Amino acid sequence: MKATRDEVRIGFYVCHCGHNIAALVDCPAVARYVGTLPGVVLSRDYKYMCSDPGQELIQQDIREHRLNRVVVASCSPLLHEHTFRSAVEAGGLNPFYFHMVNIREHDSWVHTDRILATEKAKALARAAIERVAHHKPLEIKKVPIHPDVLVVGGGIAGIHAALTLANAGKKVYLVEREPSIGGHMARFDKTFPTLDCAACILTPKMSEVGSHPNITLWTYSEVVKVDGYVGNYTVQVKRKARYIHEDLCTGCQDCIANCVYKEPKFADEFNEGLGKRKPVFIPFPQATPQVVLIDPEVCLNFKRNKNPDGTPVVSDKCKKTCVEACGERGAIDFTQKDELREIRVGTIIVCTGFQTFDARRVPAYGYGIYPNVYTALEIERLVNASGPTGGEVVLRGPKNPDGTPRKPRSIGIIHCVGSRDKKTNLWCSRVCCMYSMKLAHLLKEHTGAEIYNFYIDIRTPGKGYEEFYNKLLEEGTHFIRGRVGEVTDWAMTPEEEGKLVIRVEDTLAGVVRRIPVDMVVLATGLEPRADAAEVRRLFNMSCGGDGWFLERHPKLAPVNTFTDGVFLAGCCQGPKDIPDTVAQAGAAAAEALALIDRGYVEQEPNTAHILDNECSGCKSCIPLCPYTAILFDETRQKAYINEALCKGCGTCVGSCPSGSIVQNLFEDEEIFSEIRGVLAYD
Amino acid sequence: MTKEWSPRIVAFFCNWCTYTAADLAGVSRLKYAPNVRIIRLMCSGRVDPQFILDALARGADGVLIGGCHPGDCHYVEGNYKMLRRFTLLRRMLADLGIEPERVRLEWISAAEGEKVKRVINEMTEQLKALGPLGLPRKFAEWDREVIALAREVQDREAAAGPCPERPLTPEPQEAVHA
Amino acid sequence: MPKPKVAFYWCASCGGCEETVVDLAEDILGVVEKVDIVLWPVAMDFKYKDVAALADGALFATLLNGAIRTSEQEELAALLRRKSRYLIAYGACAQLGGIPALANQFSREQVLRFNYEDAPSVVNPDHTRPQVHFEEAGRTPHLPEFRHVVRALDQVVDVDFYIPGCPPTPNLTRAAFEALLSGNLPPKGSVLAPDVALCEECARKASKPTNVAFTEFKRPHQALWDSGQCFLAQGLVCMGPATRRGCGAACPQGNMPCTGCFGPTSRVRDQGAKMLSSLSANVAARDEEGIRRILDGLPDPVGTFYRYGLAKSLLRRKVNLPTGSNGH
Fold first, then answer.
1. DSSP label of C15
2. Looking at residue B163, what is its pLDDT?
3. Looking at the domain assignment, is residue A44 inside a domain?
4. Nearest-5° angle of CA C316, CA C317, CA C320?
C-alpha cells in the first residue's frame, strides 16, 4: 500500500564521517536542501552517524517525531546498511523503511570539486527521499531445516560424508544404485602413491557404514523424485527387487554353492566381464551389505517374457535348490517387487561419481577388436588377488600350444585415452598419469615384463606423486613422450609376429617408432555419468559445459550448488583422486552440518512474487530463473514463485511483459522514483 | 540554465560486482568525473529497459549499466539476459535517433575499481562531445504549440462570453465520410 | 427525464472505430434509444456550432477516436472536453497514438516533403505546400496547422476513460455504454478492459512451452503458420504477453499474431520496452555474435513493439530529426 505524501514522515541524516565526507561535501547545505523536500519532517547533519550516539539519535527521533521513514546519507550500504537497519528496528520501526545514500565511496572520496560534489550529494539524497516513500514493511523469514540428510551414492565420497554426519549424531540415508557400496574404489587393487591396498582401507569404512546406528543403508536403490525446498525435501526412493529379504539373509552364500548352475556362467560386472558368476551372486566378497541378489535376466525361475509393467514373471522351471539350501531362514522370495519409499530430509549430498571413458570410441587403439587390449579398470581386476584370475596376469588372447594362458613379456600403457582430446573429451582426467604409473609398477611386479608408458605430459601434482614418478623411472619403466597413433596386429618384421604393435611419434627423440608388445593397457579417462543430465534435474542442479555437476563457485564454494541445501562431493563435480574426494566429502558434510545445527535458513527479503490476479500465464518468465523458482500451475494456468527458492535477482521482474511480478525492496515504483529523484535536482 | 552544461549519467550497478567495484574505487581514492549518479540493483538482470528509457526521458544524457563478467554473475545468468536486452535496445534506440554512445553496458568485476573510473571518465568525455540529449527540454518545446493553442482558444472563449451562437473558426467544412 | 447527450468525434483516424459503433448492429438501436447523439460527423448531420452552443458539461459523454495531429483536432478535443462530463478516448489512436503515431519516426518536414514533393507519383514542380492561411479569389480559407508530433488524446486534454482496440470490439463498446449509463464506473483514468495480458484468453496458450528459447525470429510472410500452436513457440513475434486482453484473441483466431492494439496493462509504462525485454531475455544464445544474429530477425523493432504506442512511449518520438526551415 503506497503511503501518500501526507502520511510519509521522513527523517533525513547526512553524516560528516569526520572529515571523510565533510571535507568535500557541504553537509549542512545538503541537510538544508533535503529539509525543503515534501515528506521530510526533520533533516540533520551529524559527525558520525554509525557511532552509538548517532544510532541513538535515530531511535530517539523516531519516537519523538513519529518518523515512519529514515534516510541516512553516509558511506556505502555494503558497509553499514545492516547497522542502520538494526538501529531503525531498535527505534521501533520496520528496518526496511530505511534507505541509505552513498556519498562517501561514491562521492566525497572520488571527486575534487566541492560544489559539484555537493550537487551530486543533493541529487542522490533526493533520489532516496523519493524512493523511501514507497518502501513497504518487510519481514526476514526463517525457514526451519529438517535434521536428516540424504547422501546419494555410496562410493568413497558418499561413505565418508555419511560417516562424518552420522558420527556427529545426524540421521543419514545413504542410497546406492549398485547392490553394494564401495563404488569404483572397491575395484582398485592398490592406490597411489602409497600403494595401500584399496580394499584394506575401504572395507573398514564400509563395515562401519553397514553397522552404524545413524545410517540407513539402502543399496540397489535409486532416487526417483525430489520435491520441496531447502530444509524440507521429500524424496522418493525406489528400492529394486533383489528377490532376497535383506533382513533375513545372513550372507552365508549357501544358495550360491547350491545353485543348479554348477559352474558360474554369466559375465561378472564387478570384474569388468573378465570373470563369471551365477544367477544368484554376491557382487564381491566384502560387499556391504553382505546380502546376495538374484539376476532375473538369467535365473531359471523367471520366464523370458515379462509382465506389461516390466516385472519378471515367475516360472516353475527350476528345482530351486537355492531355496532348499537357505532352509529355515527363508530369505529367498521370487515374488518380491520394487518398492517405493518416501523420506523427509533437510539436506542432500550428491556423490554419484563418474564413469570411465568407453575405449571403443577410439577404434585406432583396438579395444574390443584385439583381445589383448585392456582398459585400466580391467587390469585393476586382473592384478587383484581376489580378482577373476587370483592376481595372475594372463592374456585373454590365444593361449600357448599346451593350453596354458600366455603371460605378457612386454606391456604398453597408453595415457590420455578419452582425455585432452578434441574428438572426445577436452579435459585432463587428473588421475590417469598416476594410476598408469601405478599399474606399470604392479604389472612389473606381477610379470617382470618390459613396461612402456606413452604420455603427453606427466602430471603429478599431489603429495608424494612426483617421488612416485621418480621411483618408476628408477624401476626401468620406459617413458615415451608421444600420443599413440595406432595399435595394430599387422606385423612388418618377424619380431612383430603375434604381437600388438604400438605406432607412436617419440617427440623427444624425433622419430616415429613401432613398439611390439604382448599387452596394451588403455588409461581411460573419467567422464560424467551417462545419466548426469537427468540426475541433475532431480536435484535442481546445473551441469557445467563439460557435463560435470556445477558448483556454486569454483574457489569459494566448491561443494555448494546453486540450490540451497544440495551439496556435491567427489568426481561427480569433476575428476579428482581419492585424497581430494575425501576432503570434498568432509567439506560437504561440514556445510550440511552448519545448516542443520543452525536450525534455519534466512530468506532474502528482496524476493519476488507474482501478482496472482494479474498474471496471464504467458509463461515468458519460467525459463528465466536459474534456480527454477518459477513454476507453472497447470490447474490455475498461472505462474507462481516458490519464495523459498527465490534469490532476489529480479531478472523475471524486468522481463515480465505485463508487469505482473513484483520484487520486494526493488519494486518498479521504487526504482522509477529513484530515477526521478536523481534527475530532478538540476 | 545559467550553469554550463555537463553531462548527467544515470548508472544502474549490480550489487555484487559493479557497485562493489565503485566502492573499491572510492576506498582507493581514485578520482573521476562527478557526472554519474549510481542506482543500486541486486543484478543487472533487474534492469528493465523501461528504466533506461525513463532516465533518458527525464533528462539523463547517458545511461550506464554495470554487471558482472559473463560466467560470473552472482545469480548465474542475469547478466546474459541484460546483454540480450541491451543488444536489441541499443539498435532500437538508434532507430529512435539516440546515439549508441549514450547507452553503455560494461562488465566490471568487484576488483576493477580502475575500470569504473576509466569507464565513467570515458563516457563523460564522449557525452560532452555529443552534447546534451535534453529530452525534457525537447518535450517542453514540442508541447509549447499545444499549450499555446489551448491558451488562445481559452482566451477567445472567455472574451466571447457564455454560450452565444458563434462559430469556432470560419465555417469549417463538414467532415467527409471516409 | 431527458436522454443523456452523447457525441462521437474522429481525429487522425481511419474510420474503423466509427465502423465498430455501427457494428453494434441491432444494438445500435439500443444505443440510439437510450442516448441523444448530438455530434457524429461520419453518420449524422450536425455542426460544430451546435456543440459550441451547449453549456459546459452538458454532454454526458464524448467518445473521441483518432490521434491528435492538427490544430483543428486539438481545438475540438478542448471544446469537447469542456462540454463533456466524460471524455473517453475511443480506440488505440486516441488511447496511445495508434498507427498514425508511427509518423513520430519522421520530422514534420520529412512527412510533408515526401507527400507533397518526393513521392514517386507526385508532380509538384512549384514545391507547393498546404498553407494555414491563403488568399483565393477574394476569400481567405484557413486550414488547420499540421503539428510536428502525433499525440494521444490525453497528451492534449484530460481524459476520463479509455476504450482500447484497433478498433475496440463491439462487446467492449457495448459494455462501456452499459457501465456509463448505469454509473457503475471504475476510477477516473481507467482503461475499460481487463488488466491482464492477452495470453489468458488465447486458445493457443496451452501449446506454449514453459521453456521457450528463441533461436530465430520470423516475420508473418516468411512461413505458413500452424493454426493451433502459440506463435511465439513458432518463432513469430506475438505481442500478446504485453497486451491487454478483452478482444477474445481475435487476431490469433484469424491465424495472425497479436500486434498489441489494446495497449499495455496498467502496471507497465512502456509497452514496447517490456515486450523487447521479455523477447530478448529468452533468446537462446549467450555470446554477443549469436545474440545479434538471432535478434537480426527483428529488423524493425520500433514498428514491431510500438506499432500503436509510439506517442505514449517514454521517448514519444524519434529525436534529433532533421528540421525544416521553421525549426521543426
1. S
2. 47
3. yes
4. 135
Q: How far is CA B73 from CA A18, A649, A655, A662, B63, in A?
A: 36, 10, 17, 21, 21
Pair A419, A278 in one domain: no
- Looking at the structure, tell me whether residues C69 and C118 fall in a common domain: no
Is residue C190 in some structural domain? no
Identify how many contiguous H helices and E strands chain B contains and give both numbers. Answer: 5, 4
The residue length of chain A stands at: 682
Any B CB within 8 A of C147 CB: yes
Range of the domain at C19: 5-99+148-182
Confidence (pLDDT) at A507: 96
- Render pLDDT for A453-501 as a digit per residue (tens, 0 to 9): 999 999 999 999 999 999 999 999 999 999 999 999 999 999 999 999 9
* Residue whose cell numbers read 555448494: A560
Residue C10 shares a structural domain with residue C156: yes
* A371 and A507 in a common domain: yes
Contact flag C274-A659 (C-beta cutoff 8 Å) = yes
Cβ–Cβ gap C195/A614 under 8 Å: yes
- A:C CB pairs within 8 Å: 81
Phi, psi of A209 (to 5 degrees): -60, -45
Name the domain boundary from A138, A170, A203: A138
Residues with Cβ within 8 Å of C289's Cβ and at least 6 positions away in sequence, in order, are none
Q: Please tell me the distance from the alpha carbon of residue C234 to that of residue C215, in angstroms, as a whole number.
A: 10
CATH of residue A614's domain is: 3.30.70.20
Q: Strands A511-517 and A500-506: what pairing?
A: antiparallel
Inside any domain, residue B122 = yes
Neighboring chain C residues of A613 at a CB cutoff of 8 Å: 196
Q: A616, A670, A673: which to substitute to probe chain C, counting the most C Cβ within 10 Å? A: A616
Cell of A184: 569404483
DSSP string, B21-33: HHHHHHHTT----
How far apart are alpha carbons B107 and B130 in whole angstroms?
23
Nearby residues of B99 by Cβ (< 8 Å), 6 or more positions away:
B130
Same-domain status, C136 and C153: no
**Residue A290 in 3-state DSSP?**
coil
* Calpha distance A310→A222 (Å, rounded): 17
Q: Within 10 A of C221 (CB to CB), how many other CB atoms are there?
A: 5
* B100 touches A at CB < 8 Å: no
Q: How far apart are CA A373 and CA A395, in angstroms?
A: 9
Query: Which residue in A82, A110, A553, A664 has the most chain B C-beta atoms within 10 A of its own C-beta, making it the best mutation to test that interface?
Result: A110
Q: Is B37 on the interface with A (CB under 8 A)?
A: yes
Tens digits of per-residue pLDDT, C228-279?
A: 999 999 999 999 999 999 999 999 999 999 999 999 999 999 999 999 999 9
Which residues in C lie closer than 8 A to residue A623 (C-beta atoms)?
210-213, 282
ipTM over 0.95: no
Q: Which three cell numbers stand for residue C41?
A: 460527423
Contact call for residues A88 and A60 (beta carbons, < 8 A): no
Contacts of C277 in chain B (CB under 8 A): 48-50, 85
Same domain (yes/no): C18, C36:
yes
Angle at A335 between CA A333 and CA A341, to 5 degrees: 95
Three-state secondary-structure class, residue A176? coil
- Give the three-state DSSP class for A385: coil
Residue C247 grid cell = 478482444
Domain region containing A132: 10-138
The pLDDT value recorded for residue B177 is: 31
**With contact defined as beta carbons under 8 Å apart, do C274 and A657 qualify?**
yes
Cell of A606: 528482496
Cα separations in angstroms, A380 against A444, A523, A635? 14, 11, 55
Residue B170 to chain A, least CA–CA distance (Å): 44
Q: Residue C44 falls within a domain, yes or no?
A: yes
Chain A's closest residue to B75, CA to CA, is A649
Residue bearing cell 595372475:
A392
